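Dear Dr. H.,

I hope your travels went smoothly. While you were away I took the liberty of generating a structure for the chain from your last submission, since the lab meeting agenda had it listed for discussion. I wanted you to have the full record in hand beforehand rather than looking at slides cold. The sequence, exactly as received, is reproduced here:
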Amino acid sequence: MLDHPRRLSRRALLTGGGAVAGIGVAGALTVQTELLPGRSWLYGRLGLDGEDGKAPDIAGGRIEHGEFVSQARLGKACRWALALPPGSALDDGLPVVVTLHGHGHDHSAAFAPDRLALDRFLADAVASGTAPYAIASVDGGDSYWHARDTGEDAGTMVVDEFLPLLTERGLDTERVALLGWSMGGFGALHLAPRVPGLRGVSVMSPALWHEFGDTRPGAYDDQDDFAEVTMFGREASLADIPLRVDCGEGDPFYAATRDFVDLLDPRPAGGFTLGDHDLGYWRRVVPDQLAFLAERF
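The corresponding predicted structure, in token form, is as follows:
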């Protein structure tokens, strides 16, 4: 599942915009200027998403798995995974990148071979000379990593429960970074000011909306919840945090992400290239995302 904003269906595009079938140059320009709904679908059909990224052809290192009961998530069992680069051990005191998953995903999406396979990207980076670090992932549910009116708060789970668990496992959480995609990209931006020892944040295709009425159902409790946690108007909270933001130009979150980046001072690393809201794009940019965080360590 993807965190797409609300947009017209394919049927509506085909019946209500007959020019789509013969879009040609004029239609392509319309998509480029975002005047036509269904930008992501059309970019894919026009071959404007760019080449899919591939996981490195290298074995990842050791991955530990565990589970804890989260008080912040109202007693839910949260599974987690922790990847080390080949040749490293927990007692090496490695810094750690904490990943926040997208909607409909869980902790396993970070390392599954058919998902991001971050353990292989990590192994490849270290084999190429990057100083070793760990990558950790945890279940956050679909609550968009912030406090909800039910009392559940996946963000507090990360800060008050998961980070101390990683400290107990031997990781150096005085040197921690956040990586998130889609819903998790928003979560990383939202949580960044609360994380002690934070060295940097990298996000891919963050789930950002200008208005509550545009949001995915269930992403926020109501208008007040959206107003309280939207990143628009809170750009200053990131001013002192090294930040990288990447988003595909065919991504349904492209316009909001572009507008948000334009408001940031200093402007973050990263940028906007061909790509959609999908695994092919995320795998293409994740090496640069991880390299950015490694440099912050």
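Two observations you may find useful: The chain has one domain: 63-296. Confidence is low (pLDDT under 50) at residues 6-37.

With kind regards,
E. W.
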